[in-house]
Design a protein that fits this description.
homodimer; 332 residues; Rossmann fold; DNA-binding
Chain lengths: 332, 332
DNA sequence: ATGAAAGCGCTAACAC
DNA sequence: GTGTTAGCGCTTTCAT
């Protein structure tokens, strides 16, 4: 593949001149030289080698995003981040770890090895030590949605406690008293916050927390058969009159189960999901869900990242975004 | 950030020795040296610089995937490709062009600038010349799903003609005679193939093609209001008794419209989609859709890419995958 | 078993 | 306006 050296030889100019022109800093170079260089570039099918230029410059213009899963929520977030940060000349690359600690860590390492300018991380639960080490490595990064207690780092997240609280409170105000949910077998604080919000809303409304209405399931995978059985038990044995799905990974098989069991929604059983989805308005009855302030999350990520890259950030930032609005539909 | 030079200084060994050990080729290096190097690596928080090593080696281990849109179909495909090609030591990076020619071309350029080992491309319609140039640049790549007539390149795709043919034939066998669809305003051959399959199935069953039942809409964006109006006209003016959605971008607002218009599905109007979606079985009535041989597509992509990278491919390959199976549900 | 040195393609400080 | 040169961090050939 052609190099600037080839262009220099072809045009009879020096490497420097070629480099200056190719980088658009050709103000002080003669029109004649510029023309010849542009011509040679086309003819030789020149493609700049970012490995070389980034190595030399000591940095890339890439922002690496590692998310736990490539679901629509994170894809959308990445697109918003991309849109915002493109103005500053950065490109965005997104990878998904499938909730695997090993993959997540490997992906972070890969980004570092490629000397990305910064990272946005929605990490898996086992990454605490890696995040601590990231700080030592002085690499600009922002955690998103997920964080670790006792670890100082920039973090941007939803108010998971408040969102869950509001959701459950909403159901109670609608007259529901036996609100079921799934408890996830994870150490991730964002999930614990949601569970705490659920419990707090019950308590503030004088309803006792009932463990039978919050059975534990796997966070990283949804076993449809297991979920089906649990829902049947919640409703038929423990009299659940509403289900609050904290994740869509469980909501999809869950809603499928509810429909197959032919419970009357919302009369017998109300449904409310933490995250919205395009299809929730298509389903009959349509599903009530919360909608997240993704734009603000993205904007804040970009702000923090840019300050961190420029070295303007004196101390780490923690931003929590207000509880989410409810898209009320037929299921509640 | 620490370099191998730092490790060399710290351990008192040479750069060469450190490099050999860090690359796991330390068979001929003393245990003692290896131990000291591993230790220094931890203490100094060393991270290899891929920019430098790739520059030196002349290649990266990255496979770049550019897709027209980050929807579930391509995400899934990318995951399958990743799984298959990881065994050969490659990593996968996926980006979406949002059906924009400029972004698509810029993303390909970026990958080339980073000297990816190969690319998988589902390009936008204006990229014909760029693909021609890619061939000249001798970069290993495989086109997927989308291709250009008259351009020699590796391509792996669904049998779009056959799939559409089978879908429409299926509807006819079910007794439908006035099958509507949307015609897309794009030059992409994969879409034209689908349209041709639609027409051929009608013809083979003795049904005349009716332009009123195949109005033209934008390929890259779905205007819900426009689609709503068109469906109303198809059904109420031109008596459509079935709709074949060739893309899910149109299917989502389309199905929404059908439900809102309260047509009886499938009695009055049958629905069939080219691509499946997790939610199609949740919707009432559930939506019949085709399912694509994604595993095979991914596997073939990987095979071709690996051969191309190794330089084993004598001539370009074109692989068309058999018509897709139908997931029959309540909407037909 | 270990080291010296060249060079991958590029940028930038400096010289003319 | 244009050229010379050093060096980014690494791998690899060739010595020792």
């Amino acid at each position: 593949m052609a190099t600037i050296k080839d262009i220099a030889q072809y045009t009879g100019l020096s490497i420097t001149t070629v480099s200056i022109v190719l980088n658009g800093k050709g103000a002080r170079i003669s029109k004649e030289a510029i023309k010849r260089i542009e011509e040679a570039k086309k003819i030789l099918n020149y493609e700049p080698n970012m490995l070389a230029s980034s190595l030399r410059k000591g940095s890339t213009n890439i922002i690496g995003i590692v998310v736990s899963d490539l679901h629509p929520y994170f894809i959308r977030l990445a697109q918003l981040i991309e849109r915002d940060i493109a103005q500053y000349g950065y490109q965005v690359l997104i990878v998904g770890s499938d909730e695997s600690d090993e993959k997540c860590e490997a992906m972070i390492d890969n980004f570092i090895n490629f000397r990305v300018a910064g990272m946005v991380l929605a990490v898996t639960s086992g990454l605490k030590q890696r995040i601590v080490r990231l700080n030592k490595q002085r690499i600009p990064f922002v955690m998103i949605d997920r964080y670790f207690k006792g670890v100082t780092a920039n973090v941007v997240l939803l108010d998971n406690f408040r969102s869950a609280y509001n959701a459950v409170d909403f159901l109670i105000k609608k007259g529901r008293t036996r609100i079921a949910t799934f408890h996830y077998d994870t150490q991730m604080h964002h999930m614990q916050d949601r569970m705490d919000g659920y419990k707090a809303a019950l308590k503030d409304n004088g309803i006792r927390f009932n463990k039978k209405l919050a059975p534990t399931i796997s966070f990283s995978e949804a076993n449809a058969i297991e979920i089906n059985g649990m829902i049947k038990e919640m409703v038929e044995v423990y009299g659940a009159d509403a289900i609050f799905f904290q994740t869509n990974r469980a909501a999809l098989p869950g809603i499928d189960a509810i429909f197959n069991l032919h419970y009357k929604v919302p009369e017998q059983l109300a449904i409310l999901c933490f995250h919205d989805n395009d299809f929730f308005k298509l389903v009959k009855p349509s599903i009530t869900a919360q909608c997240q302030p993704l734009e603000e999350l993205a904007k804040e990520c970009v702000n923090i990242l840019l300050s961190e890259i420029k070295g303007e950030l004196k101390s780490k930032v923690r931003r929590v975004f207000p509880a989410t609005i409810l898209n009320e539909r037929d299921s509640t």
